[in-house]
Design a protein that fits this description.
There is one protein chain. The chain is of the alpha/beta class. Helix content is 34%, strand content 23%. β8 and β9 form a beta hairpin. The protein binds cytidine-5'-triphosphate and magnesium ion (MG). It is an enzyme of class 2 (transferase).
Length: 226
């Protein structure tokens, strides 16, 4: 299975002066944990890291330190996550029929979740890891007034990995550019094109590290792993 890792963000909400994926968690750069999980997932053979060229020296030295055995490619990132994934799709080897996309910022993912997604994507054309929402979610207007309360049992929190048929996802990204759609995950492009996306049970600990509090939670979770 081919894996693309969007890692080209600037980490504004983290408030650090660098790409948050280079910050240390448990004595390793955050992205190192994501890469170690991908390396340990037996289904993954090729890893494309989509990142900004000014970060490449850092990424290269992290890859070298981890002594990864899998084939790794560095791909230039775009101005948005959507553009970064688009660039990643163009850089996939021509034999890639399915692809998993996993945010570099979800460094608590497990090899099992990668392998589960790799299995399921062989039998469908689109999937995402997701978990049932625990909070009651409100739809709120611009004046801070609640407009509705969607039924909780229909709500799932989207995670990555997300998996797709490569040709279909390329088609959806091209359509997204034509139509000017701006989305925060790839499943949304699939949905807008009328294609089916299946849920795979995600992991409660598979957090996206976004703020300094998330970094502290990641330290805690990793320190309790064997
Ligand atoms: N990402 C990317 N290219 C971009 C923006 C984001 O590849 N132009 C990646 C990030 O590196 C991250 C993932 O997409 O692994 C999810 O994005 P997010 O958590 O929003 O990270 P940042 O965009 O870096 O953070 P922020 O939105 O706070 O600036
Ligand atoms: Mg962002």
């Amino acid at each position: 299975m081919h894996l693309l890792i969007p890692a080209a963000g600037s980490g504004k909400r983290m408030g650090a002066n660098c790409n948050k994926l280079l910050l240390q968690v448990r004595s390793k750069p955050l992205i190192a944990w994501t890469l170690l999980a991908a390396e340990a997932a037996s289904s993954i053979s090729w890893i494309g890291i989509v990142s900004q060229p000014p970060d490449w020296d850092d990424f290269k030295s992290i890859i070298a330190d981890l002594k990864l055995k899998k084939t790794i490619a560095l791909i230039s990132g775009g101005a948005t996550r959507q553009e970064s994934v688009y660039n990643g799709l163009q850089a996939l080897p021509t034999n890639a029929e399915q692809v998993l996309i996993h945010d570099g910022a979800r460094c608590l993912v497990t090899p099992n979740l990668f392998d589960a997604c790799s299995d399921v994507i062989l039998h469908c054309s689109g999937l995402i890891a997701a978990v049932p929402v625990k909070d009651t979610i409100k739809v709120v207007d611009e004046n801070g007034i609640i407009k509705g309360t969607p039924e909780r049992k229909q709500l799932w929190a989207a995670q990555t990995p997300q998996g797709f048929d490569v040709n279909l996802l390329k088609h959806c990204h091209a359509e997204g550019i034509r139509q000017g759609w701006e989305v925060t995950d790839d499943a949304a492009l699939f949905e807008k094109c009328g294609l089916e996306v299946r849920i795979v049970p995600g992991e409660e600990t598979n957090l996206k590290i976004t703020t300094p509090q998330d970094l502290a939670i990641a330290e805690f979770i990793l320190s309790h792993r064997k």
